[in-house]
Amino acid sequence: MNNSKIKVVDLFAGVGGFHLGLSRASNQYEVVWANQYEPSRKNQFAYNIYKKNFPQTPISNEDITKVKKEQIPDMDFLVAGFPCQDYSVATSGAKGIEGKKGVLWWEIHKVLSKKKPSYLLLENVDRLLTSPGVNKQAGRDFGIILRTLSDLGYGVSWKMINAADYGYPQRRRRTFIFAFRKETNFFDNVFNIVQEDDDKIGNFIKTMSPFSSTMSNELVASIENVDLNLIESLGEFSKNFSVKKGFRKTGIMVNRKVFMADYTPKFRKETTIGDLLISNNNDESLYLSLEKIEKFKEQKKGFRTIKISRTGHKYKYGMGSMQFPDPLDKPARTIVTSESTVSRMTHVIKDPGNNRLRVLSPVEAERINTFPDDWTKLEGVVNSNRYFTMGNALVVDLVKEIGNEILEIIKKDCY
């Protein structure tokens, strides 16, 4: 890379959360190519929103499985919020890395194989660390990702981050994965650290860039080691690998050796949902009728039931009650793609100006993800599309913070 620009490729780009966050971090990041395609949708609204906001960035609207990887521009840094439906706790019958969306990991793998960027930043749901399930090969999917990245010549650090713990306005738990090639100084640094004892490894994990240097951990639990070398064949690895209860919240991996731990964050002052609301919102379509209020109350109730599995086994199933309406003195819950519909996960708030019950506006959903107001506003994009994109989006200022940390790593490696 030259002394002025870090060439970035943005895969599964959505409406540009990675791009915007890196732009806020530094003008040294230059997105040279992006790809965004939503299967089975005639209206490619996320692509159109990205194009509106970044008109100078070349962006493809082709199915990534059909893109010739050698034609993607050379890059220093790859970012990807790869689709997460097959890991999500909201998905019934999720199949993890073998599911329809989960297999898109292998498209990232193909890009890495061809283009060999020095650095990689991925984002996915928190459940990725235990997928496909605690009772069935827990941690297999994340283990495959670590194993294949190692085989491609990368070391890895990761951290499952709840954005609200570090002062952002949403209780959104996501797994961030940073990978770095063997040729980098950062790889050498991590390699040297893991030769030390558990105390020194724990101290490193407590404050390691790019996930803890500023977003410090107050406490790191005892270090657990996992050796990915124990199963040589990747096919056998996929069939047989598991970790008791899955991978832990943070850790590092070099040369197939994993060191991981749980952690307690060094909490920052909360940003609450009430800080972001538009008082006396004049959009009447947001306000709830008495009928909808009753439907929401029913949805938010807790319940307990007995279900029967396919094999005839009975098991208890249930959910706890949810506060109704949502409290304004706490960060928002996770924004979901179906926000504003009558469902259990939709936010319902009492407008602070008139005390009427309503759902969030699209602008408020954008603010909760730290996007600018009206980022997703575009002719032909209806409100349900705007909520959908925010349910799939990143917390932009969290990306900015991580981007600043990665910039310091790159500077030490290259300048």
Describe the structure.
This protein is an alpha/beta fold. The chain folds into two domains: 6-269 and 395-414, Vaccinia Virus protein VP39 (Rossmann fold), CATH 3.40.50; 273-359, no CATH class. The chain has helices at residues 17-25, 45-53, 105-115, 140-151, 185-193, 198-207, 234-240, 290-300, 362-368, 383-391, 396-414; strands at residues 6-11, 29-35, 59-60, 77-80, 119-125, 154-162, 173-181, 217-220, 224-227, 250-254, 257-261, 263-265, 303-308, 314-319, 348-350, 357-359. It has a ten-stranded mixed beta sheet, with helices on both faces. Helix 1 (17-25) crosses helix 11. The radius of gyration is 22 Å and the shape is globular. The N and C termini lie close together (10 Å). The relative contact order is 0.14.
The largest sheet, given as strand count, sense and whether it forms a barrel, is: 10 strands, mixed
Query: Please, what is the CATH homologous superfamily of the largest domain?
Result: Vaccinia Virus protein VP39
The overall pLDDT, averaged over residues, is 91
Shape: globular
Radius of gyration: 22 Å
What's the N-to-C terminus distance?
A: 10 Å
Number of domains: 2
What name is given to the CATH topology of the largest domain?
Rossmann fold
Please tally the β strands and state the result: 16
